[in-house]
Amino acid sequence: MLPSTCLFCGGICLFSIPICSPCLKGLPILAHSCEQCAEYLHPSLLSNNKSRICGACLAYPPPFDHTFALFPYCFPIIEVITKLKFQHQLGYTKVLATLFIQRILQSWYKNKSLPDLILPIPLHDKRLQHRGFNQAYEIAKPIAKAFMIPVDFTGVKRIKNTQAQSRLSSIDRQTNVANAFVAKRSYTGMTIAVIDDVMTTGYTITEFCRVIRQSGAKNIDVWCCARNQKLG
Q1: Would 229 disulfide with which of 8, 40, 53, 79, CB 3.0-4.6 Å?
Q2: How many domains does the chain have?
C-alpha cells in the first residue's frame, strides 16, 4: 500500500489515517477543563475542587452530564472544521473519528460503560440539502462501527431553520436555537452520546440535550471535536 498524504502539511503519512507523526504531535491540547461543559478551569481552582465542575455548571446545571472534547477551538482545528464543513474535504472526518476512537478506548470510557446510542446534532432539511452532508453524522459513523453502537439520525428533528450561530452575538445565539428541535421517539433510560463538531457558547447542544432529556434520556455525554475555551 502506498503511503498517503498528510491532510495538514502535505507530507508523507505512514499511519492508517491521513496525518503524519509531526502534525499529530503538534495538535493543540485541551486545557484544564470542566468535566461537565469542558469550559476552561484555571489550575488554581482544580486543587480544591475534586469534582472539576465550573461555577456556571454548579449554579445552572446543563441538561447533559459530561463533555468530552478532542481539542480547543484554535489553529489548526479551526481550519480543519472550516475545510470539512464549507469546502467538503471529508477526509478530515476519518482523522477526527479515529482520534475519537483512540480517546474513547484510552481515556474517556476506559473505566465506564459505553453509551447505548449516538445522536449527531441534526441539520435542518434546507441546510442539509444545501451542504449535502451532516458533518456530525459523517464523524459518528466510523465511531459507531468501531464500537457497534447504533447511530440515531432520525429520532430528533431540527424544525427551525436557524441562522449560522457563528454570525450571531451570544444573546442572539440563545434565541436563535430556542425550540429548534423536537424528539420523534422516547429515549427512556438510555445513555446517549451527542456528537457535534464545535461547542462554542453551548446553546445549540444545550437545547438539543434538553429535548432528549425530556424524552427520557438517563445520561447524556457530549462529544465534540473542538471546544471554545475562554482562557483566563
Answers
A1: 40
A2: 2
